[in-house]
Amino acid sequence: MAALLLRHVGRHCLRAHFSPQLCIRNAIPLGTTAKEGMEWFWNKNIMGSNRPVSPHITIYSWSLPMAMSICHSGTGIALSAGVSLFGMSALLLPGNFESYLELVKSLCLGPALIHTAKFALVFPLMYHT
C-alpha cells in the first residue's frame, strides 16, 4: 500500500517537473486580493462608525479592588526599594546603626512627625503582608 502511494506521488512530481502546465491548470484566480479585503474591512469597521479603535482608560470607573491592587503593587515596590536602600546604606555608610539612631534623637523632632514617620515605615509592611 505504501509502495503504491509512493509510486503515485513520485509520478505526480515527475509530471509536474517536466510539464509545469499540470500544476497551473488547477489554479483559479481569486476574486479579490488581500489588500482589497483589508481596505473593505477597515472602511466598514473604522471609517463607517465614529468610535475609537480601542477604549480609552477613562471608561473604567474606580473600584475598591482596583485601588487595593494598585496600593498592593505600590507597597511592594516601596518595600523592595526600602530594604535595598537600607542594605546598601548599612554597607556603604561609615559608623553603625546606633550612631544614626542617636543622630535622629538629637534632632529633637516633634511627636507628630515621629509617629508619622513610624506609620510611613510600618504601613507598607502591614498592608503588603
UniProtKB/TrEMBL annotation:
<keyword id="KW-0812">Transmembrane</keyword>
<keyword id="KW-0472">Membrane</keyword>
<dbReference type="GO" id="GO:0005739">
    <property type="term" value="C:mitochondrion"/>
</dbReference>
<keyword id="KW-0349">Heme</keyword>
<dbReference type="InterPro" id="IPR014314">
    <property type="entry name" value="Succ_DH_cytb556"/>
</dbReference>
<dbReference type="GO" id="GO:0009055">
    <property type="term" value="F:electron transfer activity"/>
</dbReference>
<keyword id="KW-0479">Metal-binding</keyword>
<comment type="pathway">
    <text>Carbohydrate metabolism; tricarboxylic acid cycle.</text>
</comment>
<keyword id="KW-1133">Transmembrane helix</keyword>
<protein>
    <recommendedName>
        <fullName>Succinate dehydrogenase cytochrome b560 subunit, mitochondrial</fullName>
    </recommendedName>
</protein>
<dbReference type="InterPro" id="IPR000701">
    <property type="entry name" value="SuccDH_FuR_B_TM-su"/>
</dbReference>
<dbReference type="GO" id="GO:0016020">
    <property type="term" value="C:membrane"/>
</dbReference>
<comment type="subunit">
    <text>Component of complex II composed of four subunits: the flavoprotein (FP) SDHA, iron-sulfur protein (IP) SDHB, and a cytochrome b560 composed of SDHC and SDHD.</text>
</comment>
<dbReference type="InterPro" id="IPR034804">
    <property type="entry name" value="SQR/QFR_C/D"/>
</dbReference>
<keyword id="KW-0408">Iron</keyword>
<dbReference type="Pfam" id="PF01127">
    <property type="entry name" value="Sdh_cyt"/>
</dbReference>
<dbReference type="GO" id="GO:0006099">
    <property type="term" value="P:tricarboxylic acid cycle"/>
</dbReference>
<dbReference type="GO" id="GO:0046872">
    <property type="term" value="F:metal ion binding"/>
</dbReference>
<dbReference type="GO" id="GO:0006121">
    <property type="term" value="P:mitochondrial electron transport, succinate to ubiquinone"/>
</dbReference>
<comment type="function">
    <text>Membrane-anchoring subunit of succinate dehydrogenase (SDH) that is involved in complex II of the mitochondrial electron transport chain and is responsible for transferring electrons from succinate to ubiquinone (coenzyme Q). SDH also oxidizes malate to the non-canonical enol form of oxaloacetate, enol-oxaloacetate. Enol-oxaloacetate, which is a potent inhibitor of the succinate dehydrogenase activity, is further isomerized into keto-oxaloacetate.</text>
</comment>
